[in-house]
Amino acid sequence: MAPTQLQENLVKANEKYASSFTEGHLALPPAKKYAIVTCMDARIDPAAAFGITLGDAHIIRNAGGVAKDALRSLVISEQLLGTQEILIIKHTGCGMLTFQNRDAVGVVQSNLGVAGVEAIRSGFGSDFLPFPDLEGAVKSDVEWLKANTAIPVKIEISGWIYEVETGKVRHVV
C-alpha cells in the first residue's frame, strides 16, 4: 500500500528535524521532575505554551486531560522515573464539555454497530469521562489524584485552565 500524503509529510518533516537534531544525549527521567496531564486538543502546544524544553517534563495527553485516563502513565512517571510534581491543565472550549456518555455511545453504535459498542465496553467500560463544568473538572481531578493511594502524598498536585482564546493559563487549585 502506498503511503498517504500525511505519511509522506511526516517523513519529510522528520528528515528535516533529524538533520539538525542534537539532543540524543538527554536522560530518560525528566530533568525538571514533573508531569503535565493535558488535553489532546490540537490547539494546545504544551512546550510553547508552558515553557517546556525537550527533556524537562513528561507530557501526558488524552481527551480532556483527564487524570483517571492518565493514571497508568503518572504512576510510571513518578514511581519509575522520579517525577515529584503533577500539573493538571484543562482548557476552555474543550470538546469534553459538549457531550455525555450516552451521546458518544450512540455515535459509536450508529457508526460501528453493536460490535463497536461491545468493544468500547470491554476496552474502557463505555465511560468517555466527559465533564459538564471545566473548573469543577480541574478540582475533581486534583482531588481524585490526591486521594489516590497510587500517588504518594509527597507529590505536589495542582490544577490549571489554559485559555485557547488568549494563550493564557490560570491557576485553579
Provide keyphrases for this structure.
173 residues; Beta-carbonic Anhydrase, Chain A; globular; 5 strands; 5-stranded mixed beta sheet; alpha/beta; 42% helix
Tell me the radius of gyration.
18 Å
Query: CATH fold name of the domain at 28-98 and 130-171, please?
Result: Beta-carbonic Anhydrase, Chain A
The second-level CATH architecture of the domain at 28-98 and 130-171 is 3-Layer(aba) Sandwich
Outline, from the CA principal axes? globular
Strand order of the largest sheet: 2-1-3-4-5
CATH class of the domain at 28-98 and 130-171: Alpha Beta
Keywords: Lyase, Metal-binding, Zinc
InterPro entries: Carbonic_anhydrase (IPR001765), Carbonic_anhydrase_sf (IPR036874)
Function: Reversible hydration of carbon dioxide.
Enzyme class: lyase
